[in-house]
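INTERNAL AUDIT FORM
Audit reference: QA-55
Scope: verify that the stored structure record matches its stored sequence.
Auditor: D.O.
Record contents follow.
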Amino acid sequence: MSAAGQPGGALRVALLTPCFWPEVRRGGERLVRDLADGLIARGHHPRLITSHPGRPSKTLEDGLEIVRHWRPPPGRLARRKFEDHLTHLPFTYASLALGHDDVAHAVYVTDAVAAARWSKKSGRPSIHGVIGAPDRQYFVRRRKRVELWVEACRDCDVVTVLSKAAADNLWRDLGVESRVIAPGVDTSVFTPGETPERDERPTIFCASAIDDPMKRVGLLVEAFALVRRERPDARLLLNRPRDTALAGQVTGNDGVELLDAASRSPELIGAYRRSWVCALPSLGEAFGLVLAEALACGTPVVGSNAGGIPEVLGGRDDVGRLFDERTPEALSRALLDGLELAEDDGVRERCRARGEELSLENCVAEYESLYRELIAARARAG
């Protein structure tokens, strides 16, 4: 019997993603790294199978084995609008077939198809981990996308999502049932700090990418101009974009400043701690991890009442505010309420408590439980 078949035994988990650091740094790659670190801390043996444009390599990075396969250029597939990230799949499947993993956990649909086909051959379980909150428009944007999603959802042992909102989308558009496992915050890293660091000036921070239209940072800048009418000393902190022209355009607004705050960096954590409010006016968020990070740092949040963002607040108006109308006026009212909330006694403690409910430790424990459940179910069936 393998260690996976023994109660409490170490698990061998293959994590699959088409791209990884340093090539891209998005939410999916961040979730994979956090999950891998959490599994390693619990005594398991994850490995990451991914791809990049360069030569194949196998490295050990902070305790995680990372296999990077060559990703052939998409060429005609891209020109003909086929689904992204198809060309590396033969190499990913080969890595699974030659490995000794107990479970395969993919976070992109094409990798999930490879994992599902590996499951059929090996008899071991696979997971289609959905990172976003896909809707009907997303499904029809690429050729063969719907077919790939149907195969992945049908043939993987389970589909996981980050929020109930994402689960509702999948059920509505594909008729797929899924299990909700919220992403987690490393509450040992994201903390309020030993001493209060809040700025004297009312400060609003948005950690989202300025150049992503779905984040609606432009709407935030418009709303902030209205906030300044009532709070003239307020300032808005934004992450510096790569586009210098866009950076200059944004900083042309009074009170708007840019900073370089990479994921998990001291600059990011410092910005969370110093700010009075962390804002996320996005549409289509599967969860809104930056708001959970801010809460763990003791900072109230403001977000759109859409997607998975309300689930971050957990129905509590004593840790943040939501806005419904997609107008600068509605967002500015929520921001002003958030600034007032930041001055309440005990708000840091309440925010921190909510952040701890969304801890990475809880998230990793749920995935570990799911892995064991699926392995046991396969063993009974086999």
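Auditor finding: record pair retrieved intact. The mean pLDDT is 93.
Action required: none
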